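In the design runs reported in the main text, the only information available to the sequence generator was the tokenized backbone. The following block is the verbatim input for one such run; it is reproduced so that readers can re-run the procedure and compare outputs position by position.
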């Protein structure tokens, strides 16, 4: 209810602004909508916002993220009263944020900050400890894959800049539990084109660089970043990137409180090739043990076909010394939004292939027979398109695996085959991919 009321007040402020700017007046009578009485402090705040608008500015909203309102009510100083932050773009193209503090029945302006970019990419409020919040405004630039972020602190004297940085990607999280969030950036060197991982920590009223570690030389562009448990209750930084050779690579940066090291890079060559995989798949906790696993290309004991090369992945867990443990293998069909844990009993005995039409894809799992014939073990069907329900109904022998808004997943287990699985096993191993594992944008 609290969040709902706050959104309504913000919407009401914008509605009043549009009415006043358009020269409209409110009329009351039968059949007309009556607006609720607005508290005095909000009317007074709207008058201040109107003055800014009359000077030629227009309201600005962020392109992405969760904080996209032009006027936002946020308790940035931890006192329990919400400050008002209003975002504008001026006639010259600059972005401005005005901050107002509630004092009695008035909102008093406490500061204004200005920044430049081709777009206001996102707005975020990082925690600074003691209940206080900062303001991070993220900028889009003309250069492909490069963004900017300016972080502000709110004081009685106004707004002060805590940090100003250009980055390729960022993730924000309190990794040590002290109430102040760390900021991890992937930073690209404009001269060499190489990337590094830089983590900044807020201490004693300012951000300081906790560590800055080189990323592997195969990085073409960063796809996503996340913190995750490594070992001994330590937290690592996992960075998934598109590789210069195609596919994905991962940099795992581990920090022990004194030193930071890249655990997936070859220290001599700078290569991260051991984490390479042909599929566009990011790190995830694939086996549910609370630790992040890194997908890598599967090593075959035979000559695989193209479907096997692109679909089979091994998931590796790295410890704090860089040691590797294979935790699982999967078949990953990203284009069809599903993956399946590879059954332990299959080993290298089962192979796979696909057959696809416009609205139907079949993934075939089979075992080579002694006579050279294929022995079917499992077939997974994916029905898409507007007629998927009726199309699937034509295949009467199929069993249901899952359904999503965009697809129906069915299977034919071939229960007579020696390595066939029953439906209980299949439903445990089979998973749909409904959302991206790394969806937050800054």
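Verbatim output:
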């Amino acid at each position: 209810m609290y969040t709902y009321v706050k959104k309504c007040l913000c919407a009401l402020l914008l509605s009043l602004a549009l009415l006043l700017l358009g020269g409209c007046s409110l009329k009351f009578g039968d059949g007309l909508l009556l607006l609720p009485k607005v508290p005095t402090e909000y009317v007074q705040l709207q008058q201040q916002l109107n003055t800014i608008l009359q000077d030629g500015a227009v309201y600005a909203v962020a392109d992405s993220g969760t904080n996209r309102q032009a006027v936002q009510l946020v308790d940035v100083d931890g006192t329990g009263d919400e400050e008002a932050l209003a975002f504008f773009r001026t006639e010259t193209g600059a972005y401005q944020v005005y901050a107002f503090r509630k004092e009695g029945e008035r909102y008093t302006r406490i500061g204004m900050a200005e920044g430049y970019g081709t777009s206001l990419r996102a707005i975020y409020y990082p925690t600074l400890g003691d209940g206080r919040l900062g303001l991070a405004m993220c900028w889009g630039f003309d250069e492909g894959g490069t963004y900017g972020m300016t972080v502000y602190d709110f004081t009685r004297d106004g707004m002060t800049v805590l940090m100003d940085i250009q980055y390729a990607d960022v993730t924000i999280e309190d990794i040590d539990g002290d109430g102040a969030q760390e900021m991890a950036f992937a930073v690209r060197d404009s001269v060499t084109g190489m990337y590094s991982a830089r983590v900044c920590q807020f201490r004693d009223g300012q951000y300081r660089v906790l560590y800055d570690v080189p990323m592997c030389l195969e990085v073409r562009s960063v796809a996503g970043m996340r913190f995750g448990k490594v070992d001994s209750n330590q937290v690592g930084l996992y960075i998934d990137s598109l590789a210069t050779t195609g596919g994905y690579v991962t940099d795992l940066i581990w920090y022990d409180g004194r030193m930071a090291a890249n655990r997936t890079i070859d220290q001599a060559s700078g290569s991260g090739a051991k984490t390479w995989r042909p599929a566009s798949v990011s790190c995830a906790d694939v086996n549910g043990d609370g630790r992040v696993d890194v997908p890598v290309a599967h090593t075959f004991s035979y000559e695989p076909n193209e479907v096997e090369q692109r679909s089979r992945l091994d998931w590796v867990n790295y410890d704090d010394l860089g040691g590797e443990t294979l935790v699982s293998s999967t078949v990953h069909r990203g284009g069809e939004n599903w993956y399946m844990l590879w059954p332990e009993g299959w080993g290298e005995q089962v192979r796979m292939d696909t057959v696809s039409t416009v609205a139907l894809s079949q993934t075939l799992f089979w075992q080579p027979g002694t006579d050279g014939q294929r022995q079917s073990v499992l077939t997974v069907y994916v029905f898409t398109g507007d007629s998927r329900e009726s199309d699937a109904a034509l295949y009467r022998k199929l069993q249901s695996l899952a359904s999503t808004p965009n697809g129906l997943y069915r299977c034919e287990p071939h229960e007579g085959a020696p390595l066939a699985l029953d439906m209980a096993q299949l439903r445990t191993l089979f998973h749909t991919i409904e959302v991206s594992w790394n969806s937050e944008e800054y």
